C-alpha cells in the first residue's frame, strides 16, 4: 500500500521502504531489491533500515545482511523516527495519550509523555516535533529534546491541524513556548 511506503533520498541515493522490503537506488548502479518482512513501521538511519517486528526494534544494513535486534519494544510504535545517529519513536494510547521514547545505552528510555494524541511528527537533529490533538479539537505543535529537556509547544490552535511535518536545514515560522 502507498500509505505504508516511505522514500528516503540523500547524496548516496534513494531508499524505498515498504512492509515487505526495501529497494536501494544508487547513482550509476542497478536498483537492489531486498525482500524482508519489515512490519508496520520502518525508517532509514544512515546505512541501515530500522524497523519493528514481533515485539522488537531491529536493524538491517542496506545490503540486506546483518539483521540485528536493537531493543525489546512490546507494542508497535505509531511512528519510528531517525535523524543522523538519533532514533526515537512515538507510542499512542487512547487512555494515556502519547509518549516519546528513545534508546540510551541499548535500553529503552521514556523521553516525554502528554495526554493528547499525535497526528504527525518528525525528528530533526536531537529534537522531536509533533502535532498534538486534544479531545476538544484544539491542536498544537510540540517539541522536546531527546534528553527530555526543553519540552515546549505552540499556543493551541483551532481548525484543521497540519497533516504532516517536515524538517529541512532550518525550522522556521514556529512560535514554540516553554511549558
Tally of strands: 17
- Characterize the main sheet: 5 strands, antiparallel
Span from first to last CA? 39 Å
**Can you list the strand order of the major beta sheet?**
13-14-15-16-17
Which H/E pattern describes the elements? EEEEEEEEEEEEEEEEE
Unreliable residue runs: none
> Based on helices, strands and strand pairing, what is the structural class?
mainly beta
* C-alpha geometry: globular
Structure description:
The structure is a single chain. By secondary structure, this protein is an all-beta fold. Helix content is 0%, strand content 54%. It is built from no helices and 17 strands. It has a five-stranded antiparallel beta sheet, with no helix packed on it. Strands 1-2-3-4 form a four-stranded antiparallel beta sheet, with no helix packed on it. Strands 5-6-7-8 form a four-stranded antiparallel beta sheet, with no helix packed on it. A hairpin with a 2-residue loop joins strand 2 and strand 3. The radius of gyration is 17 Å and the shape is globular. The N and C termini lie far apart (39 Å). The mean pLDDT is 89.
Amino acid at each position: 500500500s502507498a500509505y505504508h511506503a516511505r522514500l528516503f533520498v540523500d547524496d548516496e541515493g534513494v531508499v524505498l521502504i515498504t512492509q515487505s522490503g526495501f529497494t536501494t537506488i544508487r547513482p550509476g548502479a542497478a536498483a537492489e531489491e531486498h525482500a524482508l518482512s519489515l512490519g508496520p513501521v520502518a525508517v532509514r538511519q544512515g546505512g541501515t533500515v530500522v524497523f519493528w517486528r514481533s515485539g522488537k526494534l531491529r536493524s538491517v544494513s542496506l545490503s540486506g545482511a546483518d539483521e540485528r535486534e536493537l531493543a525489546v519494544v512490546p507494542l508497535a510504535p505509531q511512528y519510528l523516527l531517525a535523524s543522523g545517529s538519533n532514533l526515537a519513536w512515538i507510542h499512542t494510547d487512547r487512555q494515556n495519550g502519547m509518549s516519546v521514547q528513545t534508546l540510551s545505552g541499548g535500553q529503552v528510555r521514556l523521553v516525554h509523555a502528554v495526554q493528547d494524541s499525535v497526528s504527525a511528527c518528525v525528528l530533526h537533529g536531537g529534537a522531536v516535533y509533533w502535532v498534538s490533538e486534544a479531545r476538544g479539537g484544539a491542536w498544537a505543535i510540540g517539541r522536546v529534546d531527546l534528553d527530555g529537556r526543553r519540552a515546549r509547544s505552540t499556543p493551541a490552535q483551532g481548525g484543521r491541524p497540519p497533516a504532516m511535518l517536515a524538517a529541512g536545514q532550518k525550522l522556521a515560522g514556529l512560535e514554540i513556548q516553554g511549558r
